[in-house]
Amino acid sequence: MSSATLKKKAINATVWTVVGYGSSQILRLGSNLILTRLLVPEIFGLMALVNVFISGLALFSDIGIHPSIIQNKRGDDPIFLNTAWTIQVIRGFGLWLGCILIALPVAEFYEEPRLLWLLPIVGFNTIIFGFTSTSLASLNRHMEIGKLTLFELGVQIISLTIILIWAWLSPTIWALVGGSFVSALSKMWLSHRLNPGRPNRFAWNKEVIQEITSFGRWIFLSTAMSFLASQADRLILGKLFSLSMLGVYTVAFTFADIPRQVIQKVSSKVIFPVIAQHADLPRKSLRAKIIKQRRLILIGQSIILTIMVSFGDLLVINLYDERFIQAAWMLPLLALGLWPLMLSLTSDKALLVIGNPSYLAYGHISKFLYMLIGLPFGFSQMGILGGVIVIALNDLPFYGVVSYGLWREKLTTVVQDIQATLLLIGLLTLFVTGRYLLGFGLPVDGIL
Questions:
Q1: 212 near 63, Cβ under 8 Å?
Q2: What region does 157 belong to: left with phi over 0, alpha with psi -120 to 50, or beta?
Q3: Which tens digits make up the pLDDT trace of 288-317?
Q4: Are 221 and 248 members of one domain?
């Protein structure tokens, strides 16, 4: 692929990713506003716990099938794709068995009997997802993000429609459970309609398995630790907070996490495939291309984060009722804390491309250990505020390890990170000062 063609595809993919994510968030926000008026906060907290454990099982068994298809030179080979799909199907059944096995201990630990049956029921979606076509990974490999975006929006619209109608007719947790089931079925069925070639079928090629597992061993450790690091807040807060307060925190985190999700999607759907095309370049040339690609992305994400930190609390205050008011001051703290991770997400895929994802695994381990020690301590010293502050700072260890890895591999971006951070500080100072002078107070006034 020529440099001009690749650049054109990258720009097109970025636009589709941002537009798709924006549309998805509008749908998500609209449905969330309706659901918070139909369902009590406790239901959101309970479903958050269920999803945390199912996601955890998925990440603890992830051997990087999707990244392997994108990165591997045989990624278009039917034998490679069908073997990957077979592994994915087997994994889906294993995940459901895991949901059944952990249901009792999880229900007893959180003293919540409903988890005993919710985990196996919602966990059945893992079997359905296992049969999802490899066409989604292939579209990502070839940067056909337009088709992928329309697919994802279609699935979301279908599932949200079911959830809203169900919650209106019967405002119970079954509305969320039913919506997740419909989402899994829709994604599985529609994904096979996207497959331009022969449909996936069972295959077992030892050479392909060796290639996937060889690449995926560090992916496995990285994603496992990623789960512990990124979900430790809900795992620990589920024990420290009431389910209602966990539901409030989930609302704050959902909004605060928007900038990260934007850049994560751009990273996985655009940056990763583009860098993979230049994997054979000398490190100096590869680093130059990474820095060039990051420039506009860093400016854009600093603007998005500034808006979220400066005005996110007003969003919560005006859109939600008093039951969720504490989410207003949580949101800006959580959003600001995402900056180190957002810097990492624009460069860490380079470590995957050069075949050295071990630094990502070590980064997630350091983040998890920080949360394991810091979150209970922060909560014991300052209550809810202390817990939120600890969570807001939890991406610093990951950024430190990834930056060290990039430096060791002669791909460092620290100077550019410092420049972007200074831009963020300047924008925040300008916007927060302007807000205060206009009489809207500070974003964290709700703490007092």
A1: yes
A2: alpha
A3: 888 887 888 889 889 989 998 999 888 888
A4: no
